[in-house]
Design a protein that fits this description.
Blueprint: H1 13-19, H2 21-24, H3 35-54, E1 62-65, H4 68-78, E2 83-87, H5 92-103, E3 107-111, H6 121-127, E4 132-136, H7 150-159, E5 163-167, E6 186-190, E7 201-205, H8 231-266, E8 272-274, E9 285-290, H9 295-304, H10 314-317, H11 324-328, H12 333-336, E10 339-343, H13 350-369
Parallel strand pairs: 2-3, 2-4, 4-5, 5-6
Antiparallel strand pairs: 1-7, 6-7, 8-9, 9-10
Helix pairs in contact: 1-8, 3-8, 4-5, 6-7, 8-13, 9-13
Length: about 375
């Protein structure tokens, strides 16, 4: 039973079918001038148009990349700025790139979040200086699900003539995004988070924004991302985007119902606490911490019961330190180590949730009895 959709999603069968012709029949290189190249180019531009429409962008503003990590690196390293503002709960690919840039002499300001993981737009505005060239704030946390006030932050950045980027890997296809209304200059999204294949992602670059290429070579993707494009994956990404757009409203409502059921029942367990915003959170995210036990122990016990979930602590990240996101919300290290993230998806049923809820309390009780933390 899979309850880790925030990590990745299975590829929708309709997406697989859409990709099929591009392995053996329409396999051409989009840069070739002959028939096979022209047909491949036609499919590429159709995919670009489909995806652009999902966020209110122009087709020529969509750059295809291999991953959200690549897109985020391209933004932070490609926008030459003396000063960059990020939040304290960014994904590791933003966080670590910012740390690398600091070593190159770029000033990085990390705006704090409140106990719900929410960025205060006023803090962003206060952090802006004459040297600020870029603000990058995650649209919604992959760990705690809190949706940030991106529209407000975008408006502030536009007023101060500062470029604004958001990592929308967790929100694209799940909640509505309009890059014009939200004053977004650059945006990252990923195929494998919305039932598309791995190996395809996008970077929205607003027309007129100057960005230095991360990869140089053949001049693909308007010269901003050289490399032969992964056409089957991009076609799959476009098909996944279309399905997500068509089903977004209905699916969000269904997932919110299941999410709220999980939250209500889990919080009945003694010494259990919700992390993230109680209401303004992703439709599919329910995240908690439990006193006196470690998250990786919960994950392993759930796995033995046939349930896949995630944690922000040691085993899931292969690091010894607790989640920087949870620490940023004010949790102590021992609290952050007791985290559990349950993320739902298109194929999650209420029966599965009922099974999860029937298993979890016994696991928590069992682990507390043997916990080195006491109680």
């Amino acid at each position: 039973m899979y309850l880790d959709y925030a990590a990745t999603t299975p590829v929708d069968k309709q997406v697989v079918e859409a990709m099929a012709p591009f392995w053996f029949e329409n396999f051409g290189n989009t840069m070739s001038l002959h028939y096979f190249g022209r047909e491949a180019k036609k499919a590429l531009e159709k995919a670009r148009e489909e995806i652009a429409g999902a966020i209110g962008a122009k087709p020529e503003e969509i750059i295809f990349t291999s991953s959200a990590t690549e897109s985020n690196n391209t933004v932070l390293r490609g926008i030459k700025a003396k000063h960059i503002i990020i939040s304290s709960i960014e994904h590791a690919c933003i966080k670590e790139t910012a740390e690398w840039l600091e070593g190159q002499g770029v000033k990085i300001t990390r705006v704090p979040v409140d106990k719900f993981g929410r960025v205060n737009p006023e803090d962003v505005e206060k952090a802006i200086t004459k040297d600020t060239g870029l603000v990058s704030i995650i649209h919604a946390s992959n760990e705690i699900g809190t949706i940030e006030p991106i529209g407000e932050i975008g408006k502030i950045c536009r007023t101060h003539n500062v470029l604004f980027h958001t990592d929308a890997a967790q929100t694209f296809g799940k909640i509505s995004i309009d890059v014009k209304k939200m004053n977004i200059d650059l945006l990252t999204a990923s195929s494998h988070k919305i039932y598309g294949p791995k190996g395809a992602a996008l970077l929205f670059v607003k027309q007129g924004v100057k960005i230095n290429p991360f990869l140089r070579g053949g001049g693909q993707e308007f010269g901003l991302r050289s490399s032969t494009v992964n056409l089957p994956a991009i076609v799959g990404f476009a098909k996944a985007t279309r399905i997500a757009k068509e089903e977004m409203e209905k699916e969000a409502a269904r997932q919110i119902k299941l999410r709220d059921k999980i939250i209500e029942e889990v919080l009945k367990i003694k010494e259990s606490y919700l992390t993230g915003d109680p209401k303004n959170r992703l439709p599919n995210n329910a995240s908690f911490y439990f006193s006196f036990i470690e998250g990786e122990s919960i994950i392993l016990q759930l796995d033995l019961a046939g349930i896949a979930t995630s944690t922000g602590s040691a085993c899931s990240s292969l690091k010894l330190e607790p989640s920087h996101v949870l620490l940023a919300t004010g949790l102590k290290p021992e609290q952050a180590h007791g985290s559990l993230r349950v993320s739902l998806g298109r194929f999650t049923s209420e029966e599965e949730i009922d099974y999860f809820l029937s298993v979890l309390p016994g696991i928590i009780e069992k682990l507390r009895k043997i916990s080195p933390y006491g109680k």
